[in-house]
Amino acid sequence: MTDITLPESSERSRLHREAKPERVVDDLVTADDRIKVFWRRYPEGRLDTHVILINGQDVETLDTFTGNLHLAGGEVRYTVRASVYRSAYDVRPIATAEATRGTKDADEVTAAFPQETARTAALSAALRFAGINPPRRKAKP
What we know:
- By secondary structure, this protein is an alpha+beta fold.
- The protein contains three helices and four strands.
C-alpha cells in the first residue's frame, strides 16, 4: 500500500490553529455578524434550527418522560441541525450544518448552555456554507 501525502491548506480552521499568545483568535466573525448580513441579503429568507439528537439518540424516538437524559457521568449532549433558506417558501435549504455541544465541554459557557451554543455554532456554520461571509474584525487583545 502506498502512503498519500495531502497538501495542507493554509486556510485552517481556528480549531486547528495554534492561538497567538497575545490574542485568543487572530480574526473574528460572530454568528450575529453572519445573521445580520443574511437578513440584509435575504430579507424574505428563513433560518431553521432543530435539535436532532440528545446523547446520540434521535429526538423523535427519545423517551423524554423517563427524565433520564444524562450519559454516564451526568453529561447531556445536544446535536443541532441548522438550515438556511433564501425564501421562507423554499423547500430546499441553500446550506445546512450540524453542531454538538455538551454539559462536560471545556468551555464554561458551552457547558452551562450546551443546547444554545450548539444552535449558535450550527447556524453560524450553515451561514458560512451559504456564502455569508461578513468582513472579519480583529479580536481585542
